[in-house]
Amino acid sequence: MMTRLGLALFFTMNVMVFTLLLWSQQEGAAADTSPGSRSFYDLARHACLLFTGPVLLLLGGPLVEDAHSDLRRGRLGISLLLLLGVAAAFGQSAWATWLGSGHVYFEVACMVLVAVTLGRWLEASGKLRTTQALRDLRRLLPDTVRLVTADGEAEMPLDGVRPGSVLRLLPGEHVPTDGRIAAGTAAIDERTVTGESLPVVKGPGDLLHSGTLDLDGELLVEVTAAPGAGTLERLIDAVAAAASGGSRQQRLAERVAAWFLLVVLVVAAGSCAIHWRLHGMAAGVLSGLAVVVVSCPCALGLATPLALWAAIGSAARRQVLVRDGDAFARLGAARTWCFDKTGTLTTGCRLTRLESTPEAAAAGFQNSASVLALAAALARGSTHVHARAVAEAASDLGVDPVAMLEVRTVAGRGVEGTPAAGRGLARMGSVRWIEGERPSRSSREEEPQSLLWYAGVVVGRLWFAERIRPEAGATATALAARGSRGIILSGDRPERAATVADEVGLDWEAPLLPEGKLARIEALRRRGTGVVMVGDGINDAPALAAADVGVALGCGADVSRWSADICLLRDDLSDLPWLADLAARTSRTIRWNLLWAFGYNACLVPLAAAGWVHPTLAALAMLASSLFVVTSSLRLAEGDAEGPIGGRDAQFAPSGPVTEPELEAAVTMEALR
Amino acid sequence: MIEWPLLVASGLLGSAHCLGMCGPFALAIGSAAPAWRNNLARQAAYSAGRLFTYAVLGAVAGFVGLRMAKALVGWTNVPAILAIAAGMLLVYQGLLAAGIIRRRGVGAGGCPGGAAFRALLSARGTLDVFLAGLFTGLLPCGLLYGMLALAAATHDVPKGLSTMVAFGAGTVPAMMIAGLGGSLLGVAARRHLHAIAAWCLVLTGCVSIARGAGYLDFGEGEPAGCPLCSPDGSDGH
To answer: Is the peptide bond before A54 cis (omega within 30 degrees of 0)?
Structure first.
């Protein structure tokens, strides 16, 4: 492709030099009819003819195919018009060269072909660049796998794998498709599909997602999903569908472009007919050709999709997956941001206060630290959020848990066990479990609390508070700086919602039942400010669906169960202002692109129709216009994208240059479109 | 017309400062050919490609100069203005290279064809390398713009073409050396060469400005006596 284009450019440059010599001769000595001058004319013309031939052969082919496929489908496409124009320009020039008199337009034929090919190449290459992030993701999957059969082990292409096949996976390899571990244990890095940055240890019977990374163990994996149907592929397909599919703006742009094409055809035909009648065939062909060339490939049709693809690709690089292009477009203009509290603004719990009771001293505890040491020992036996908070607090304060004989969880109540050097059973758990049906009414009753009980008496009271995500405050500030209002819509008690809201810096409304949340979102939407709901992907599904844009954290690996328009795979709230900025920038870029495309066509098409734009200049103008749209869109794809895919983390950056076959395929696709 | 040797010298020395941009291309070409003889052929093909593009650009510039001179005849002396503009551009480039003035930020955002272009550079065939040279010749470069303005000042297609060929020929040795051996010169020597190159550009620019100013002063007559201008090249207007 590049070689063909390069050679054509080389021959075209030759044609240009001889054409310039011809022109300058005409400029300098219009009346020079000396034999020397005549033979020079002839020489230059024949040289032009000689060099134009290869250009037609090299670049005419795809245009002929394109025009042919248009004709077969009964459509009058722009390719056919270009082809007619080029053929006419070449035919007339060859005839003039044969006769030895009259104008030649070899440079027109060459320049039009080169510019159109270059324009299409530019467009295809731009599209490839914008979808680079998604292709980077796809490159995480290996090309070949190690298939284990009764006869032994064989390397084979990934495509040959079927559900039920058993594969051997070595440390450092990516899981090729979804499967279940048949043998072996390994730490798996799942951040590509779940966003979870800590490795997960998996063993026999556990499910593996395609695209995740085996960090340290050799595994035998029984395939459960055919290649192409794994978790990662479904994720990529969902984003790709959002990028290429049904954005309303995009459909509008396509409709406008279709009408525009019709207008161009009519204007070109009219201009050709009028100039032909007034100034002869050559003038007619040149002006018609100039009209077609100046408006092709149409920047109008390119403006929206390129920018949208670039932005969605850029988001994917940061593990923000956009499933709905329209929602993404609405995000930039949204001015009301609603947040769910638990699990969205907060994550887990922290121990805020520990009080040892007067009975503790009698039970042998010298201070709070010794109470915490017992609590931490019990906490080891449970995965409850309060237990984890206790364990974390103990380790933060450098308190070693006491040795325990045994620890067991009492479902729904707490945890109990016997200290190795103690006087009987110890318990940590809910107030109701330890104090019976008669919870004491302390001033702090609104805060969640647990009791520590030992040898028949309560020795400690532990209070907890929700842990606010560290980036929540900065996120709220950034959104406020954008002129947005943030509200917490919580099902929790008003005091707790207020505490979080104060700390983060948002308004709040609580308690709201799920229906209440829906009603509130509806009411906010009626004000017309554009409502974004940020929530948990599973529990807040109805609220996410009701908002203009639903943004979810904790989406999980299964894309088919996602209810939100946009998913923050990394569970990082600071992606929100970034995303809002990206959406706003995308809208701006699309507007500028459209404005440019419209202005450019509105100026140049009439000029070309009037016969004031030489087709060679038209070709250059068209290239400049395409270049403007492509580069302004590509600016959305670069910049501050960071995250596990591409950018800083080398392990996840298998990104390579666009390969020749990829480009070839894209250009062919373009020709077929 | 400024003497050809001075043009070649501008290319020769001026290209030392361009190695920052074009040097990596030469290295990329060399990296695909381990044997130096093969590498030499590739470097030559690459330079030929660049030279060809410069020649065509020179012809275009010459024609543009001619058209402007004709269109604005009697209104202003186009070749003189162009010569002055070219001179100023070259002086600017020279001062940039010498580090006297600094540029704020570097443009050149994403080049959509960059990847495919890299593929051409490291391709095996000599033809591909020649084509890579052809494309490289189109890369934006301040020195090139200055020289093109100079070519336009000739207001003649063949002369514009040969101006650029002379300049391009001057850039060949530096690119060949960069592509063939990395560096034969030490850091200090290169720094000296760099400085000389920068001031050589400034000198070429000054000569061009002086010539342009001479044309302006003397209008249609003979140009002012300028020690660096060749008498046979100055066919005046």
So the answer is: no
